[in-house]
Amino acid sequence: MPKQKTASDSYDGSQIQVLEGLEPVRKRPGMYIGSTGYDGVHHLIKEIADNSIDEAIAGYASRVDVVIREDGGITITDDGRGIPVDKHAKTGLSTLETVLTVLHAGGKFGGGGYKVSSGLHGVGSSVVNALSTRLIAEVVQKGELHRIEFAQGASIAPLKKIGKTNRPDGTQITFYPDPTIFKETVEFDYKWVTNYLRHQAYLTKGVFTSVVDERTGARESFYFDGGIKSYVKNLNIGKDVLSDDIFYVERQVEESMVEVAVQYNETFLETIKPFANNVLTPDGGTHLIGFRAALTRVINDYARKSGLLKEKEDNLTGDDIREGLTAIILVKLPDPQFEGQTKNKLGNPEVRRYVEQVMNEYFAYYLEENPAVAKKIVNKALLAARARKAARAARDNVIRKGALDGMNLPGKLADCSSKNPADSELYIVEGDSAGGSAKSGRDSKTQAILPLRGKVLNVERARLDRMLSNNEIVSLIKGMGVGIGDQFDISGLRYHRIIIMTDADVDGSHIATLLMTFFFRYMREVVEAGHIYLAKPPLFLIKQGGNKRSYAYTEAELDELLKKLIADRKEKGAKIDERDSLVKQAGLNESSLQRYKGLGEMDADQLWDTTMNPENRVLVQVKIEDAERADAIFTKLMGEEVALRKNFIQSRAKDADLEELDV
C-alpha cells in the first residue's frame, strides 16, 4: 500500500544540494581516489608525482625527489618548467591556483601543455588539495620563487613572489592528508614510495628519482639508463633465462610511441606488465591484446617457416607461447582512454593496431636474426604444448573420477556443516595425528579439517600435469572448490578463511612455504582477496598448580610469563635464588614446562584452546603488498638456485617474524 503523503514529505528544489568548487571531493572522496584507507592516502602521492613524471616524459624534467617529512607531510619536487603562475584568462586566478582549486583544470586536455601524460581527468592536484589539511605549492621560474598555501582546498596565503632563489626551475608540492577523511591512516609507507619511484625510473629512461624518509633517515635513489630493458632484467633475477639478450624495440606510430622489452626464462609462468603513459594497467587493455596477438602470430609463423612446427601439428596457443615470458609493454599516447580514475585498463582501440604493427615487424626481425634464441623459444612453447595436453588428459581423468568438479569432496576432508563460505574455515593440517586432534577439537559447524601427509609438491618446479598427479595437491583443489588452471573460478570458493596449520619447526615452516607457493602461483586471486592465513601454535606449555595452564607462542613470551610468575612469588614473600633458572625461580619444576615439538603432541582440547578457538587463537593473514617482490622471493626460496636461497635465508634469519607476513 502506498505511503500516505504528509507535509514533511515535500520534495522540492531546496532539497537538491549543489556542491561547488572542491566540495564534491570532500563529500565523496572515494569517487576520486578509490578509497580513504591506505591505498587512498598513497594515491595522493601518485597524483602529484605523476605530474612531475609527465614533465620528465615531455623532456622538461630530469629528476623527481620525494621527502617523507617528520611532521607527517610529504614533499614532491621536480626540476621541470614549473606550473605557470600567470593569470588564467578564464578563471581570473593565477594558473597555479586554478590547477590546485578547479576540478578538470590542467595541461592535459590538449592545447600544447603535454603531448603525453598519465593524467586523464585533470582532477589530480585539486583533489589532493581538497583532501589535505595543508598544501603548500612553490614554483621556481627564471630564478624567481613563488609560493601559495591552502587548507582543505581553500587558499589561506595567496600567491606571492618570494624573490630570487638558487633553486632550479620546477614545482614543489608539500601536503598533509586530512585525518578526518583518511580515518584509517595518514602515515606514509616508505616501502610504497620506494617501489613507486623505482618503477617510474624504469619507465622513464634518463630520469633520476629519490626518496628520503626524515622519520628514520632511510634514503634511496634510482636511475636506469636501460629503461624497461633494465626492468625486464630485474624481473628475471634468479631465473634461468633462455638468452642473456633482451628483445627491445621503441618506435613511433602516428602520434604515439610503442616500447616493448621481452626475455624468456625457464619457469612455467608468464610475467607481463602493461603500461600506458607510465601508468600500470593491471587489467590490461588494447595494448596487451595487441601484444599477445602479435607474439602468437609471429612465433607460429617462424615455427612453421623453420620446420620446428610440422605441417600436421596444430598451431601453438597463446598460453604455450607465453610460458616463461617476461615482458614490459609501454605505450605513450596523447589521449589515453582509461577505465575510471584508478586507470586499471586501457581502452584506446587504435593502440592494439599500433602494438601489433611494431611487434609483427620487429619481433619477426629479431627471430630471423637470432635463430638460436628463436629455436629455444619455439622448443619451450612446444614443450609447453605437450605438457598442456598431458595436463588436460590428467585433468579429464581426475574429473571423470569426480576429483575436480566439486561434487565429490576428498575422503580425508572433514567438512563443516555450514554451507555459507563467509562463515566457513578450512584448516590445512600437517599430518594425520594433528589432523585427528583438530577433527576432535574443532567447531564442526564452521571449521573443516584437511590433513595433508608429508610435504606437498614444490609447484615452483612442476607443471600442471605433474601437479594433477599429486594426491595432496588434488585434495586441496577439490576441497577449496575453485578449480585450477583455465577452470579456476574464485566464486566457487567454499571457505573464506583457508588456514595453514603446521608445526612450529623447520619442517612445518617448509610445508607452509610450499603451500603458499602453490597459492601464489596458481590461486593468486585467493591470496589477493585475503583468504589465506597462517595459524600460530604455541611453542610452550606451562603447567601450574591444579589444572591451570598457560601458553607461550615465542621465546620472548615465555620469558615474560616466567618473570611475571617470579614477580608474583616475590610479592607473596617467597625466597628467590637468582642463580637458579627462570623456571625454578618461577616456582616450577622442569617437567612443568613443555616445549611442543609438533601439533600432534596436543590433545584435542589443547589444540582448540590455543590454535583454533577464535577467541584465543593467533592468525597471521598472508598479504601481497608487492607482487614483484613476492615473485622474486618465491623464485629464490623455491627455485633451482641453491646459492640464492642460502644467501636469502642467511641474510634475513635474524629478522624472521610471523607477526606480519607480507609477501
Helix count, DSSP H or I runs of 4 or more residues: 21
Any idea how many domains?
A: 3
Uncertain regions: pLDDT < 50 for 5+ in a row? 1-20, 108-112, 402-407, 652-663
Biggest pleated-sheet summary: 8 strands, mixed
Measured between the Cα atoms of the first and last residue, the distance is: 56 Å
Give the radius of gyration: 30 Å
CATH topology category name of the largest domain: Heat Shock Protein 90
Find the count of extended strands (DSSP E, 2+ residues): 21
CATH superfamily of the largest domain: Histidine kinase-like ATPase, C-terminal domain
CATH architecture of the largest domain: 2-Layer Sandwich
Strand order of the largest sheet: 5-4-3-6-2-1-7-8
The CATH C-level class name of the largest domain: Alpha Beta
Structural class computed from helices and strand pairing = alpha+beta
* Average pLDDT: 84
Characterize the overall form: globular
What multimeric state do the chains show? single chain
Strand content: 15-25%
What does this structure look like?
With 663 residues, the chain is of the alpha+beta class. It folds into three domains: 23-222, Heat Shock Protein 90; 228-392, Ribosomal Protein S5, domain 2; 405-537 and 620-655, 3-Layer(aba) Sandwich (Rossmann fold). It contains 21 helices and 21 strands. Helix 8 (286-306) runs parallel beside helix 10 (349-369) and helix 12 (432-441) packs across helix 19. The longest helix has 30 residues, at 371-400.
